[in-house]
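Morning!

This is the sequence you dropped in the shared folder:
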Amino acid sequence: MKPALPLILLASLTACGLRPVYGGGSHGVVAQALGDVEVVAIQGKGGWLVRNALNDRLAPLNGGGGKRYRLVVKLDDQISGFGLRSDAAITRERRSLRARYQLIDQTTGAQVLDDTAGSDAGIDVVSSEYATIAAEDTALERLAQTVADQIVTRLALFARRDSQKTAVPKTTAP
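The structure's back. Tokens below.
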């Protein structure tokens, strides 16, 4: 009975309507839509990191056609101390990176998506200022990757839903 269990689970997944987002690979609808996104420059070091991470994820999907969408991202990068010793020295920091992003259709100028993404990282504050600054920079690099992943995932879901709306249902001849 145990060897049949994985087959039953696999069959139940297809019955519930799960479909891969990137169906069709690099020639699929989602990959083509993501390849048509131009990422506008983002201010600051965090903006540079997020933009590079987004371009790293979107550039391989570029189909060579024009850029249909423009992605505008605004970041909010905050560091706050929250661990205190008895002498009021901070022992722990939280770095938060929040992004508000808008996807704009270049052909119509309409905003088709407005959403947010964000993540937090904890940082130990040590006696070496250099080590603390290095930890803050490393946290920003990790947060930029996480935020870029969230944005690309949301764009992929948008592209999938958009393609399903515009798809013409197939009719069968009687």
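Headline: Strands lie at 37-39, 69-84, 90-105, 111-124.

More detail when I'm at my desk.
O.
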